[in-house]
Amino acid sequence: MKSSARGGLIGYARVSTEEQTTEAQEIELRAAGCDLIIHEHGSGASRARPALAKLLKDIGAGETLVVVRLDCLARSVTHLLEVIEQLADKGAHFRSLRDPIDTSTPQGMFSLQVLGAVAQLERALISERTKAGIQAAKAKGKLPGNPAIRERRPDALASMTAAQKAAYGKRIQTTAHQWLPTVRRMRPDHTWDDIARVLRQRGQDWTPERLRRAIKWLVSEHMADVALLKRSPPRPPEDRLMTLVAGISASNPDLSLRDIATQLERLHERTPRGGRKWSPSSVKNLLDRAKKIGLLETAFRV
């Protein structure tokens, strides 16, 4: 990430799902003077923020990270303070357009100190309430937690396991529309690691192990094809790149060749010749091969 000049304004726009758009935030950020805007799709509660992480890594001294609202950036006051601390370590600033926070001004720093005090007080109150509750329970001869679980009664353990499985299944079904289409396009040609990296690039918090477990659950419930669990065949490096590029293009046909090249660089994929820098022509060559063998039917943009 390179801004036009040191001391510049860098916008950060985030929405929760792929169906939403950052257009409204972008309009406000550009009106505020941001020439460079970083976009991210991901739940506000998720810790997977690859675009934000790269922004915080690359931002320079004197530059300012700008958001429309605080909730576009942080999951909580604690998370907000962590981000601002990282910016301060780099000599950078933070500004929220709709909140009285601008760390380059005395008034903004005062507002930030108030938020920090509130966060500290909140943590202290929660800790005190928890300790008081435990002490009160012990005074009455009670131990925290479910007695049946502590005694490891089979019926209680079975009920707990069933409840956990039901909750897990509900989470998988609720989010499947966000990631299952990508899995179906890429499996079994690609490894679970490849697919997890593509999903993380889109702001979805997946590891290969969790992704495989989710698919196993869907297969067990007859909601996904068992072929998704087949072992990925060994492939020459260029063949693997071809199917990876085809999978990226098929999952989002609106991506240009340059967009795909940028994603491959963010995934730290080497070019067929072993380089780190991808060109649109290299992407096009791989897409042409994929189209020729029937792996990709969708037309792509230059």
UniProtKB/TrEMBL annotation:
Q: Which CDD domains match?
A: SR_ResInv
InterPro entries assigned: Recombinase_CS, Resolv_N, Resolvase-like_N_sf, SSR_resolvase
Domain of life, per the record?
Bacteria
Q: Which UniProt keywords apply?
A: DNA integration, DNA recombination, DNA-binding
Which Gene3D superfamilies did the record assign?
A: Resolvase, N-terminal catalytic domain
Signal peptide range equals none
Catalytic residues, per the record, are 16
Identify the PANTHER family for this entry. Answer: DNA-INVERTASE FROM LAMBDOID PROPHAGE, SERINE RECOMBINASE PINE-RELATED
Task: Please state what the protein is called.
Answer: Recombinase family protein
